[in-house]
Amino acid sequence: MEGISKELEFLFQLIGTDWRSNLERMELGEIDEEHFLELARHHRVYPILYHRLKSSSAQTSVSVLRRLEQKYQFNTFEMLRQSGLMERFARIFNEHNIRVLFLKGPILGADLYGDISLRTSGDVDLLIEVQHLEKAEQLLIDAGYEKDEYIKTVLNDWKWRHHHLTFFDESKKSKIEVHWRLHPGPTKEPSFGELWKRKRKSEITKYPLYFLGREHLFYFLVTHGARHGWSRLRWLMDIERLAQQDLDWIELQVILRKYWSEDVAGQALVLANKHLGLPLGHQMEPLVHGQRPKQLAKGAFYYMKQMINLHTEPLPEDVSTYHKQHMFALMSTQQKLLFMLSCLYPYPEDAETLPLPKPIHFLYFPLRPLLCVYRRIKV
Question: Whole-angstrom Cα distance, residue 119 to residue 234?
């Protein structure tokens, strides 16, 4: 916690488990209001901040509360709009025999916070089976969405190197991400069938919306948050809330071990304990035991204290370098080996460097080392 601003320290205390007693001890008049609000926006925690500050008897700046209220109200309308979108596409996909699981959004607000208005979400994320991807794409286009053609591919590497397609409806400022994997590859993760078997049904709409079972949701959220360096505290709050639900910790450890994610789960629990006050029960001990989870947690604090936004590219060179090193450090031994092997598989850059007819694209395998050397010399 050394070197962090008082505003960030207050933010940790306000969104943590023991926020009520923390709020009684705080002297909110000493903070820089603009910086505090900037942190609230960056970490996407302004709805819960407004809800807690409003419900407390602490002396809060009228200006801060009013501006948080504006953001909270806007988010409430946005979550209602996204709920409607989710219901619409759940119905459309079901009519075309496409099973769909919703990953985040208003469903998490209701499940983790008891109210869709208390969690933010920028888009609708849904997961389908890869064989239905082309059909889903056409359904979205028919509904007025345009596909973001950002994926470059060679030898069908998109199926495992990428994990979602993005669709926009500019007229409605709407964004939908259609996933066929939970994470970009190469990695090992549950099949759609395994996730579907443990699914839950949300009650936020009249039409049934299905989302991940608690243990699979925990696995997904810790791996997603770790991949983004926990650069938004909203993701860590999700873990703090989920870890206090009725999880089957024995089954969860089986899932985490099977999919090489025990260390990132430990990292998330250590961060949630140190910064949000999550009590570490005996059932969590196997995940936080040893030095590695603590070391990984220290590595993630780099993103929090500097308010780093990994979604805005290009990243500064120092941030990009650190992020690559941290992501590699997060990998298990199996993941590191798989990652190094994947580097031998041709990349789209190889096809750009030396365009070849599609029938002989297999030649990129033996040519890849030479093409890599050529690009380095050229630079």
Answer: 8
Give, in words, the CATH class of 79-212.
alpha beta
Pairing of strands 164-169, 174-179: antiparallel
From the list 162, 213, 216, 204, the residue with the least C-alpha distance to 186 is 162
pLDDT confidence tier of residue 282, bands split at 50, 70 and 90: very high
Q: What is the dihedral of CA 230, 286, 249, 242, to 10 degrees?
A: -20
| DSSP β-bridge partners for residue 202 | 209
Indicate the helix (H) or strand (E) that contains 234. helix 233-242
Euclidean distance between CA atoms 353 and 372, whole angstroms: 9
Which residue, 34, 16, 41, 35, is CA-closest to 26?
16
> What's the pTM?
0.95
List the domain boundaries for the chain.
Answer: 1-60, 79-212, 213-330, 348-378
Q: 290-302: per-residue pLDDT in tens?
A: 999 999 999 998 9
- Report d(CA 304, CA 265) in Å as an integer: 18
Q: pLDDT per residue over 10-27, tens digit each?
A: 999 999 999 888 887 777
- Residue 311: which pLDDT band, with cuts at 50, 70 and 90? confident
